[in-house]
Amino acid sequence: MLPYGTNDTDESTRVFPWVTIGLILVNFLVFFYELALGAQGQATQNRFFLDYALVPCEYTRHCVPYPGTPSPFWLTLFSSMFLHAGWAHILGNMLFLGVFGPHVENAMGRLRYLAFYFVCGLAANGLEIAFAATSHVPGLGASGAIAGVLGAFLLLFPTSSVRAVLPITILLIPVRLPAWVLIGGWFLIQLFDGLASLSPGSAASASGVAYWAHVGGFLMGMLLVWVFQQPRRVAQTRAYLTQARP
Question: How far apart are CA 170 and CA 177, in angstroms?
């Protein structure tokens, strides 16, 4: 299910989401750089991923960092948040960030929101390292940090109506769902797939999706939202979101 909007109606009184838009732009700029490297050859692009993505075994000392890894190598905790494996990966992530990020940014304020985003991303990477301690597979993507944004949105605006499309074969069926249904369902899928991935040889294990990063970012977002949110801003944003658009 793909969300494409919420039911906010008073756009003129909302804070412009500079941070959300900035994050989306930076992610796309890095992605276009990846595409340029791919034009030089797949090996060049793969080396870039190995150097700047998150490689769990580097953190647990089950392997040494790749030769081109930045020094100190923990910088990959941050650089990995801006890497994506393909068009579907980045478009899906940026869609979710673009739909839910502005409301969380408005509820927190720009600097608080930016700090919140990165802390959730770090938590996501930390849990992925814990569950894939010996893995040499590079982990990349903004989905862990964005999962934190989803967790915050769920607690702040659980009954907000989310507009989405349900793809059925070649049809796109428009639907409206409460945030707690759409986001809660998304989280349960990540959790169940994460548990399934613990079984060697399972489809979830072979998929390469960092389910535990999603779980870690989401739970950290739910935990920290009360620290980073500003009650007055939350009340204003909640008022906008409870007004149904015709």
Answer: 21
Report the CATH number of the 2-241 domain: 1.20.1540.10
Q: Given the structure tokens 């769990």, which residue do they identify?
A: 56
In 11-86, alpha helices (H)? 18-39, 42-52, 56-59, 76-79
User: In this structure, are strands 171-178 and 2-6 parallel, antiparallel, or unpaired?
Assistant: unpaired
| Longest CA pairwise span in the chain (Å) | 57
Average pLDDT for 91-102: 94
The count of C-alpha atoms lying within 13 angstroms of the C-alpha of 8, restricted to the half-sphere facing its C-beta, is 21
CA 81 to chain centre: 8
Q: Are the beta carbons of 243 and 7 closer than 8 angstroms?
A: yes
Task: Kindly state the tokens that stand for 57.
Answer: 């075994």
pLDDT digits (tens, 9 = 90+) for 61-77: 888 888 888 888 889 99
Q: Rounded distance, CA 204 to CA 195, Å?
A: 9
Q: Domain extents for the chain?
A: 2-241
